[in-house]
Design brief:
2 copies of one chain form a homodimer. Chain A is α/β, with parallel strands linked by helices. In chain A, helix 6 packs parallel to helix 7. Chains A, B: This is Putative glycerol-1-phosphate prenyltransferase.
């Protein structure tokens, strides 16, 4: 696995194939300094919609990553594939059964150099992903840290994805996670509705992911990206 | 993680703290060329019984490994700890919830250099462990191989434990597993009731584990260990 690629990522946009976006908007996202564009969502993700997004991202020369949420929508040709593993899911289907089904069908053909497993901790109980996976959403920091240790120390997954999905998270919890994580790259997603929030969470996460804001306030979404040669931290100082 | 330790293991005995064994028998096991002695079982494992076994193994200078099956029975002082992760379990408690509970309680104190995660595939549906974890036991080779890929390629766990628990497995399946596994050390356990069976499975597994036979036919159990300087393969040729 290409860990140096991962560590170069400070910011990513996530496009949901099930939500409307114009070609012009995709072009604008691709012309920012964001590290890559993720294509993926929880509900209603199809092959055709995912492929359409890939084609447009390709056209503008940006790195394109598919986050796999259902088997039927896996599109060949992405630069990388992220495979979510929800460590606080309680429905066995969404813990390892989907992976089993995927590897039964495609296991022989996977190029593992293109694949990164994301250890997801779902932290917003009202989100679609929490409901779908029947996630047991922690209410205490010590529970969150134990999940982080499963991802980072026990399984040594390349990515620990702290997912607040639509809700802005607790920066103190992120800070506590950062302090114990030794191996995994920390991704943060959820409620990044301004540049300041991106700056705040980037103190504790290696990579900030902006999704909903693209569909809710496009101009502000564009502004969450750090400017070339200037990291969030430098701006903040 | 000390992978060179793992790769040195051709054979191990597994002692169940819940089953009777004499001090003299433990001494005899320790004086064989077995690589290490695992202490662990599925039901009725207590701290006291596990500690008693550790003391006796220590007395004879053998490497002692605890395979953790319940939190109350974790005994400090073992050389290594194996943490099972049953990839075909269907009860979320036995997939990752027990690990979460363990890391919530002990996460801060774990020395990860002593710990190896075992990706278990349970292949005997009549075994206690299959019933406890509600394992979905594969009946087709392609399902077994998909689980093997989860352990080896997706999660890159140090150990892939092919567990027939009490029943002798299908050597053709083991051979097929060996052919696709690239990273994990393959452990085989189940129905090794003779030296010949140990030889047969050692063609396809890195490490053979003998458990039940210790309690059922002690003299034959002793004879499953390869002799010093002579690997199974050499003997077979």
């Amino acid at each position: 696995m290409n860990h140096s690629f991962l560590s170069s990522l400070k910011h990513m946009f996530k496009l949901d194939p099930n939500r409307p976006i114009t070609e012009n908007q995709i072009e604008q996202l691709c012309h920012t300094e964001t590290g890559a564009i993720i294509v993926g969502g929880t509900l209603g993700v199809t092959y055709e919609d995912s492929q359409a997004l890939l084609k447009q991202i390709r056209m503008h020369g940006k790195i394109a990553i598919q986050e796999i949420s259902n088997l039927q929508a896996i599109v060949p040709g992405f630069d990388y594939y992220f495979i979510p593993l929800v460590v606080n899911a309680q429905d066995p289907k969404w813990i390892l059964n989907v992976h089993h089904e995927a590897l039964k069908r495609y296991g022989e053909w996977v190029n593992w150099n293109q694949v990164f497993v994301e250890g997801y901790i779902i932290l917003n109980e009202d989100s679609s992903v929490a409901k779908l996976t029947k996630s047991k959403v922690p209410t205490e920091l010590e529970d969150v840290l134990a999940y982080a240790r499963i991802v980072d120390q026990m399984l040594r997954l390349p990515i620990l994805y702290v997912e607040y999905s639509g809700k802005y998270g607790n920066p103190d919890w992120l800070k506590a996670i950062q302090q114990i994580v030794e191996y995994s790259q920390i991704f943060y997603g959820g409620g990044i509705h301004s540049y300041e929030k991106a700056v705040e969470m980037s103190q504790y996460a290696h990579t900030i992911i902006v999704g909903n804001l693209i569909y809710e306030d496009f101009p502000t979404a564009l502004k969450t990206v750090p400017v070339k040669g200037v990291s969030y931290t430098q701006i903040e100082e």
